[in-house]
Automatic annotation (TrEMBL), chains A, B, C, D, E, F:
One of its GO terms (molecular function) is delta(3,5)-delta(2,4)-dienoyl-CoA isomerase activity. Gene3D superfamilies: 2-enoyl-CoA Hydratase, Chain A, domain 1, Lyase 2-enoyl-coa Hydratase, Chain A, domain 2. The lineage of its organism: Eukaryota, Fungi, Dikarya, Ascomycota, Pezizomycotina. It comes from Fonsecaea monophora. Pfam families: ECH_1 (PF00378). This is Enoyl-CoA hydratase.
Length: 284, 284, 284, 284, 284, 284
């Protein structure tokens, strides 16, 4: 698997800003990084490749340009293209079938982000609307610029958000709080500060967008010095905890670690600890 | 279904302060809006009617008078009336059966509030004790006055809260936090500020009770301008997420939207968006 | 069951600072209260005994000395002793089996803390690393001193935390938030203030460690004046809510209270309420 | 609660053929006991009343006339009446909402049968089509006459069975077997013998319909001699087991029996056992 | 989507023996239809295509030649090829990661069979070993020839079956019965008759393999005359029932049918019923 | 861990009839092997020891004497001894607490049988009543003698079975069938033949009790020739499937096998397969 292959993508800049760190940049700034059909599948392909790439330990996800992480779905393109909503199918059950297939397919793109074995840090700024919430909710850690304008926008286009937000927002902010209902039912925008207060992001970075990227990169580099076996196992087990009981998750953890604790990382980490050295770890 | 029928209720004022908005006011202020048997069933009847009423898009729930949303169960009435606790049944298993039936019946009233298809905004002030927590936890959004005195009071009457608080509080504040255990185990009162900090309410309204009602009404009117198909679907899907996995909720969402995205609301909302107009939507 | 038996423990001071309140102090201060094998099993034995002791209504858990609640696993001892990691087993599947048994056994110690029928208040200060998080996450309420240094340390020794943290942290802080992922993936230390902001503790006590213990004791005494039937039922039902649906938890609550509401505590509490007296309750 | 009130029902004969045994007979034989709207709600009212009636310990459910338990939904009436399918609603999402409400309401009738605290024995004969499967699947024990013609008929009217069969058939016959898929996908009729072989019924009664009723009555009388606390608890716990883990069900059982084992029934049953007498039990 | 494209597959014969019926034949008879890497992915591609093809209503799956449905994994090829087991990775945790990815990828092939929207009828004969059980368990209906030799073979190659059998066998035969444990723990072969008795197949076809195919085809043609909306909905809802509660499945069914009952199939089926005609349905 | 230690048990004969096979015989034949308090805890100790003993691969469980596997609880002893039912506790909630602890403790004995890492074959004959069903339901495979008299007896002593039967019977026979409800509600005895027909046992052995033991031993020896990694993994994964979704179980299986497939057993088994030799496996 060769990192130089990353140059082949059309709607995303994929770069390697530091060892073990890959930066995915949504690259359609002239349209506020709004998504249309080919972009979805390119994103899925990128994430699936990085998930198994041993040269990757941490991924940054951001949007190109000064104005937006992503403004969400490109509604004009959606209206134009042969999407299921515009399909000329008279029978409501048959139309429902085609729509359901489409939703499941798009959900699967966002789920590929969530399932990526390597941690993904969302670095969001400017408009982070609709799909921007779906996408960043599927990441592991969220930092935002102070100027970010968030919005669970779907109610404003007449539908319940269906590619991930409603399923993952309660998971990543802690329940179906009054605030979650408020922002999802009303489609009102909310600020970086409000996102921080309500646990959607864990850090608001002041300064320019470059500062945000810089801080994300520093964090990603830090994570990349850690045991990849430990980091990726931690991600998997934390995600498996949701919607399941503590007892089931404990057992799952024991089965996971039965194999993983045999890692050379444990010996290296312990030895380095005793010797006050920084350990290095084999690729994963 | 005629809105004028609302005049018939005895313990609740049910009014229509704005188009699509219904206001339910608990109306027993001389007893701090404490509940006794006939009130429970009236509340259930009201909520079930509003749930299906196409003229309703958002519901406000508050308490009459200056002193309380509700002080909870009317303990004196409970002691007097023929309630299961006082029933003269010697056999503990038979008494348990009668008590269980009673609890399930009262839980079903609170669950009717939670299941209502239309969003319900709790506007609480003053004493919001015991049943006041059960009831507001079953609503979607909670605003409170600055003077609100909250209390999960049940431990002080010798029992674990059993009509909803212990099941819904972790859902609406985000888990079984140290704070949830603290207020539920100790039955200590907590303030509006503490409720806000711990995500139980999403807004504290300063000023008089009238200001609280006014702010709630403004918010309800705002929600009522939105697509009812989108708003009500969002509520349903968010509630279905709790205690289930992300994967199950994603699939449920796809099935839900397969039918719902065919709504005229989507076309109206999209068209209005392009034309920079405010859309109107058919009744639901 | 005799409280004087508490003197027999080797690695823990178990005292009775007030009626109905037991204080467990991890007592290996010269090693920052780090755990090694015999300590685990002693802790389990203590907690299981207290769980059923009618003279106990609330438990405090703290660490001896000024420097640490617990620094976690005693890595040197672990390296020395015949632990599974060091076991000379060539076949990875057989080694996995031995490791899994060991993890399940240690998890069961922490789960004994979580299952204790009586509420446990963790009073943490100084180093609260690794196992310190597992242990305090299994308690019901967490207070900390202002000087506490928290750390989900396991990633730094090359493994995913496996005796409880990853399963219980999302439960006690409200979901798999950006912050939970951050501290678990990075193994970075965090402060008392950050723990409070992110709902891991519900109180930061300023002043000396003695002030922390004093405040914990005062709180435990307060809980001990409450109906033990109500308090212990509330704990059980709240814990049962996690990872299960609201509907299942409501039914469980009704079955629980069918028996428990027959308690003399209800009559005593109600009567005392009407008479404005402080009730006393039978042992449980 | 007076058993003589049973005479008031219009579409069901409700009789008391033996002490503690109530017989509900679907009584529209001229239409093969096919259901139309008012029948559903009458059935629900009957079952809810019997569920709490202390004079009832076991219920028999059968169909009047020689030809059918029930042929299912009365399609002609359904077409005529103002049912949601015929409703003139152009918008598919609004029509979906009305249909969903209707399905949930009908499901709730069948679920009332399943939730009835007393065991219900379905005694089926002749046509047992569509709703006949929904209804008998919600009962606890199923006996059938040798002439019974079963059919999961819904596919033949163009829809997936939606008031209970698809949810309960896997529960009552043991999984989503090849046979379950076969009869549900194909809507092919199956015989009493096939129903017995595939565990849908536990007994095929040869002879006349009167023999079937007689055998059911004998069995119901037998169940009615048993401890009602034990019988009703067994029903509740067995139903709670489905779709949940063994561990959760064990805990639920312990909580249930904590109250129920205190029953006088245990003492009476044990004493009678030692004295070789038949015990009698208090009403429940 | 063009059916003639089916000719392009290398290891499978894909034919259209009747309107709406597609027959997939595993075509490596010289190796007892044993699977090696490229076959897996071809199968997945075929099934995913058919799942959405409106010209397909029912799928038959069988094995070419007289000797086997499939003898399972081609162990010799597996040993030769660069499979993860042979990978030269010293660190057990890194090897575990590679193995886990491989298992998940193969499971996903079998799950694609299970998720196929159209019903799949497995027609098995001769050796149906290992993967043959995984594969047929993922189908909806299983018919077998009288000569079939079944075996959950994995224990004999030193591992627990991991691509589906252990997860789906309890679902399709009804629980973790003594028989399921027996055949899975012992890897002993079992006969067609035993498979029928234990509900793994619903029909044993006597005669030649051609008779089996003929009977399967007849059945598939019959299913294809039914409403595709009804058939495919029934499959989806039945599969969703497993491992979930009756209550959750009922709600899911109501949401599903809210959209699907609006189908023209319902009107066509009802009208044809009244007119005693055979209905025809639009493609899906 | 020394097998000779087995001689120390008082109420159980524990022998090693063949390599890797241990036979536990309930040894209180003069009382029909009825259980009283000390027996429970001895059984738990035995099973926990065998679970980790590398010299054990399969366990047989039977009852001494000609008359009974076990007649269940020794009711006379239970009445005499200081059991919770006889405890003189006036307050129903406090009595409930003591009873619940007792039930959980006894459940834990039966669950220790179910959790044993090695497969346990129940060989039952004669009276297999009450606890005999709890115990054999927790085993993996059940064979019985033709003379076995089964009975879910608890209803006859006035209570719902609470140490395992109601939770595990639906799991091991396939759902909450009409037959399960019948035998659990009625407490009627059933025969070996009926147990076989309803999938509770997988084999009825004709002849003497010695023939049953002989057949069980032969089967256990056969299982003991198989890879212990494969056999014990299969048991674990099959049990984990119950009450969970197929998707969750597939993922759990992948994690399990990630470590376990690295076993030397796989290489040995594959090599032996190619060389047509019987493999031998290292201890586990």
């Amino acid at each position: 698997m060769a990192l130089q292959n990353f140059s082949k993508f059309k709607f995303f800049n994929v770069t390697v800003p530091a060892q073990y760190v890959v930066h995915i940049e949504i690259n359609r700034p002239q349209k506020l990084n709004a998504f249309f059909t080919p972009m979805w599948f390119e994103l899925k392909a990128i994430v699936q490749q990085l998930s198994h790439d041993p040269d990757v330990r941490c991924i940054l996800l951001s949007g190109a340009g000064d104005r937006a992480f992503t403004a969400g779905l490109d509604v004009e393109q959606a209206a134009k293209s042969d999407n299921p909503l515009s399909a000329d199918i008279a029978d409501p059950s048959r139309k429902a079938t085609v729509i359901r297939r489409e939703i499941l397919e798009l959900q699967d793109v966002i789920s590929a982000v969530a399932r990526c074995e390597k941690p993904i840090i969302a670095l969001v700024h400017g408009y982070t609307y609709g799909l921007g919430i779906d996408l960043s909710s599927a990441c592991d850690v969220r930092f935002c610029a102070a100027d970010t304008k968030f919005c669970v926008k779907e109610v404003d286009i007449g539908l319940a958000a269906d590619v991930g937000t409603l399923s993952r927002l309660p998971k990543v902010v802690g329940g179906v709080t009054s605030w979650v209902k408020d922002v999802c039912l009303s489609a009102r925008p909310f600020s970086a500060e409000e996102a921080l207060k309500n646990n959607f992001v864990s850090r608001v970075v002041n300064g320019s967008k470059a500062d945000l990227i810089q801080e994300g990169l520093k964090y990603a580099q830090y994570l990349s010095t850690k045991s990849p076996v430990a980091v990726q196992g931690t991600k998997n087990i934390l995600d498996a905890a949701w919607g399941r009981t503590v007892e089931d998750n404990l057992n799952y953890t024991a089965v996971w670690n039965a194999g993983m604790v045999q890692s050379s990382d444990v010996k290296r980490a312990m030895l380095s600890g005793l010797q006050k050295r920084t350990p290095t770890f084999e690729k994963l």
